[in-house]
Specification:
- A six-stranded mixed β-sheet has the order 3-9-10-8-5-4. Strands 11-13-14 form a three-stranded antiparallel β-sheet.
- The chain has two domains: 167 residues, Phosphorylase Kinase, domain 1 (2-Layer Sandwich), CATH 3.30.200; 220 residues, Orthogonal Bundle (Transferase(Phosphotransferase), domain 1), CATH 1.10.510.10.
- The longest helix has 26 residues.
- A hairpin with a 3-residue loop joins strand 4 and strand 5.
- Helices cover 44% and strands 14% of the residues.
- The protein is of the alpha+beta class.
- It has 14 helices and 15 strands.
- Helix 10 crosses helix 12.
Length: 399
């Protein structure tokens, strides 16, 4: 690992870290779900105990590498950490560390089970970027310590030390496909030409449709879980969605999540929150316009994403920022639903990216998706879906 600089743009690193710590404190002090005791039970590692492999991805602030080996220096945690944790929890932490060392590679050692997320080198080039990176990673770690959902990435461990240090990292389950990659795969395998002619009963085409609807449903349930916990995600986009080795879809990168106080809603049911947060292509207009908003901004983003998953095309492709602001944010332009899709799906999409006051809740969105799956599934369809899933799993494992 390269040496950590002592300053960023002439600013003392310790002072920047104190600013980051104050920022995180302000963001999390009034939380109703964060739990320090749960955070302390998370296994801790020194960076020297982890051997890093291939870079899996880079974001605005962080880089993610696979972990190819874990070599424990001392299975007991440091004294300063142990003082904060009950004896039973220390035993569990030691066992978890040992398990992770023994099971770092899955199966016959062909693929890695874990990945590490830490600040990337470019985050040290700019003071503001550095602070934002430290804040995002620290906030994400605190929320991941308490969030439990099968379709939200699981944090397995963190750095042995305070989150307000330039060396801080989190250890996550390794993902194999990002949603953008999966959409490209879907587009290549969609039934067409001779394949469609041979599919006389339309079973393969229907299974292909339900495969994408099922992924959307699982994602929707993860977002609903966050909303039920009074959390707005605020950054739904393909780059923040992946698939694990079992081909389960996972929502990750919780750096922009915001816990809300239900009692702080205004007369319209909104909150006064930071504007211009997230990715423009998927951002609800009220965020782009710096207006008050609520959890239904995630519904907007999710509906834009679902259109992309179903159509296998990029929404608003070819728009520059000026066109986007004029046509989409101000003018209300939206993607065109496909007439071949079920009316219930198209109606849900139109409502979801329509007027903020008329949007369905995530529960309503999930209900539409669940009904679409249950009404069209049968034994033959399920067999086709299982075969497709096993094929993806074998690709992940390199068989």
């Amino acid at each position: 690992m390269p040496a950590i600089p002592t300053s960023v743009e002439g600013h003392d690193l310790s002072k920047l870290l104190k600013i980051a710590e104050k920022t995180v404190k302000a963001k999390t002090d009034n939380s109703q779900i964060l739990d320090l005791s749960l955070e302390e039970r998370i296994p801790k590692f020194e960076s020297s105990e982890l051997t890093l492999g291939t870079v899996l991805g880079r974001g605005g602030f962080c880089v993610v590498n696979e972990i190819v080996a874990i070599k424990l220096k001392d299975v007991s945690q440091s004294a300063s950490n142990a003082e904060k944790v009950a004896d039973d929890d220390i035993n569990h932490i030691v066992q978890d560390r040992s398990f992770m060392q023994a099971n770092c590679l899955r199966g016959k050692g062909k693929d890695c089970r874990y990945a590490i997320k830490k600040l990337q080198d470019t985050s040290f080039n700019d003071a503001s970027t550095f602070i934002n990176g430290v804040v995002d990673l620290a906030v994400e770690a605190r929320f991941l310590a308490v969030i439990r959902h099968p379709n939200i990435i699981k944090m397995r461990a963190t750095c042995l030390g305070k989150p307000f240090s330039p060396e801080y990292f989190v250890v996550l389950d390794r993902l194999y496909d990002i949603m953008g990659q999966r959409i490209t795969k879907w587009k290549k395998k969609q039934p067409k030409g001779l394949g469609r002619m041979m599919d006389r009963k339309g079973k393969k085409e229907l299974a292909f449709w339900l495969e994408r609807v099922t992924v959307a449903y699982d994602l929707g349930c993860a977002i609903k879980y966050l909303h039920d916990s009074n959390i707005i995600y605020r950054d739904i986009k393909p780059d923040n969605i992946g698939f694990d080795v079992r081909d389960d879809v996972k929502l990750f990168d919780l750096g922009l999540v915001k816990e809300i106080d239900p009692n702080a809603r205004d007369i319209d049911g909104n909150f006064k929150l930071t504007g211009d947060t997230g990715s423009p292509r998927y951002m609800a207009p009220e965020i782009a316009l710096h207006k008050p908003y609520n959890e239904n901004v995630d519904v907007y983003s999710f509906c834009i994403l679902m259109w992309q998953m179903f159509k296998m095309e990029t929404p608003f492709e070819g728009y520059n920022m000026g066109m986007f602001q004029k046509k989409v944010v101000a003018g209300g332009a939206r993607p065109a639903p496909d007439s071949k899709w079920p009316p219930e799906i198209n109606n849900m999409l139109r409502r979801g990216w329509g007027d903020a006051k008329q949007r369905p809740s995530m529960e309503g969105v999930c209900e539409v998706l669940r009904n679409e799956i249950s009404q069209n599934s049968d034994e033959e369809i399920n067999e086709i879906l299982d075969a497709s899933r096993k094929s993806e799993m074998s690709l992940h494992r390199g068989f």
